[in-house]
Amino acid sequence: MNDSAERSEFGAFLKACRARLRPEEVGLPEASGHRRVAGLRREEAAALAAISVDYYTRLEQGRVPPSRGVLGVLARALRMDEDQRAYLYEVAHAVDAAPRRRRARQPVRPALRRLLEQLTCTPALVLGRRLDVLDWNPAAAALFTDFSVIPPSQRNYLRMLFLHPGVRDMHRDWHHDARDAVAALRMEAAAEPEDPELASLVGELSLRDADFRTWWAERHVSSASYGTKHYRHPVVGELTLDCDTWSSPDGSGQRLMVLTAESGSPSNDALRILASWSEPARAESTAGEGRGR
Hints:
It is built from 14 helices and 5 strands. By secondary structure, it is α+β, with helices and mostly antiparallel strands. The protein has 2 domains: about 5-90, 434 Repressor (Amino-terminal Domain); about 110-285, Beta-Lactamase, CATH 3.30.450. A hairpin with a 3-residue loop joins strand 3 (about 225-235) and strand 4. Helix 4 runs antiparallel to helix 5.
């Protein structure tokens, strides 16, 4: 992504954050009558940041690069949370980090694969960059779908959430879960702005799903690593599972996503049923064998 494109994304993100704030939320007089813009006006955002309207306008239009000092002022003025602030600095290329190199698709780390093999009653996935599904255990296949029959190029968690009918339908709160996943991908996009596979994924989903197109344009960002998922499985019925994600410490970008239920709960009983159902598949092939490549 060239400097002009980076400044364009920076400006678009500023505009999105400004549009989400109401005047009364930032201590300005409550709006009266019809407002031509959603959220704050440019002059209101500029006043909160104590910068000129002209300079703020040029920032939103991508005509000038921001300084680190201005980034901090803007983040405070627009009431950005931790994730939004991190994204702001990332797209402004003002983070103190070593330059990122393009990395080839990596095999699953052996330690993560061993964890998958040992989690017999617990659905678990290894996610890579762009939320690609790199590996899974039999319990995850029993819960979601048989990942092995999906072409590797389409084996992406977000893509399946939007375009795989079975995966989409099993999410009882699909809009919430899908929007969170879009926010996670948007957060990742700041770190890999020139990734052609990411651009291809975003382009495909934008063309094929109106909700994705809307949510991607809203520029919500999230780095949340835990939450609760509500499923409706065709075999065992409704499940409520805690979803936790741990990042690999080696910088590979690989993450282990694990779904658990409280011991003795109906959801935990359902997971045990699914685990017993997946035993034949476990006997036929070693977890992870030939996958993630």
